[in-house]
Amino acid sequence: MKHKIVFFDMDGTLYQTENDVIQESTLETIDTLRKKGYMVCAATGRPLNQMKLILQRVQFDFYVLINGSFVLDGDFNELEANPIPRQYCDELVELCKEHNFGLGFHFGDASYIYNNFYPMYDFCKYANVLDSLFYDPSQSFHRRHRAFNAFLICKDKRTIDNFIEEHPALRADLINVKTDGFGFDIFNANNDKAVGIESLLHDIGATWEETICFGDSTNDIRMLEKAGIGVAMGGATDYVKSFADFSTTSVYDDGIANAFKKIFAEEEK
Question: Name one Pfam family in it (predicted).
């Protein structure tokens, strides 16, 4: 067997976010993967606390979480961590206070809204990620705990672009949110899913050539590009698909199962 470890993005790939569905064909494919000896792993922008609905149906051998900044084994033991420096968290808090932007942080096992509670809450509700979601009006939880990712909602994209330009150690990814404005994930610039996967591969003695990666968004591009087989979901843009080896059908149309029909046929040659 040439490939032995599979990494799945969650939203738009394995998981239908807006209706909390994992297709039966996907669950059956994961069972088949395990029987064939593959390791099955998550590679997601979500923190662990936002995986609860998914974990009711799928357990993973490893977890590459919060865009690669927090890596856990199957028993949820920490393997790698790359939190945002506290100074930058402080500066994000002040920026959002000044401009009245919605702000929250993902920590290891909880997420905290800091301000503009209801726009942030509504976004989290849409994404089915209300578990372990708290409100910190003191805006100080990050001073006592490691923040791995900031999530931010605003109407003024230029201010965020300027902030990132002044902080090259950080990066901001535009995310799709059902809100009046722009949504951003902000995290360390030297970090992404591919970095988290690479650290895990090193730990377990595996290589990129042995991996299969599935994704649908720009934060999946590097792992799709580096994988032995990179598969873009049908809902991905043509730009994202250009970095994959092939594209499959969408998350609503048996995308994972259809991809593995092709992969298994090739593996068995």
Answer: Hydrolase_3
Under 8 Å between Cβ of 128 and 111: no
Report which secondary-structure segment, H or E, holds 89.
helix 86-99
Q: Does residue 119 contact residue 96 with C-beta atoms inside 8 Å? A: no
> Which numeric CATH code is attached to 86-188?
3.30.1240.10
Domain ranges of the chain: 5-81+191-267, 86-188
- CATH C-level class of 5-81+191-267: alpha beta
216-239: pLDDT as tens digits: 988 899 999 999 999 999 999 999
Token pair of 235 as six digits: 């809902």
Q: Does residue 236 or residue 126 have the better pLDDT? A: 236
Question: Of 17-26, 131-140, 192-201, 226-235, which range is least confident?
Answer: 131-140
Let me know: does 101 contact 153? Beta carbons within 8 Å: yes
Q: Which two tokens stand for residue 241?
A: 């698909």
How far, in Å, CA of 175 to CA of 156, rounded? Answer: 14
- Read off φ and ψ for residue 195, nearest 5 degrees: -65, -45
Give the E-state strand segments of the chain in sequence order: 5-8, 39-43, 62-65, 70-73, 78-81, 102-106, 111-115, 133-135, 149-154, 170-175, 182-188, 211-215, 229-232, 246-247
- Residues 213 and 80 sit within 8 Å (Cβ to Cβ): no
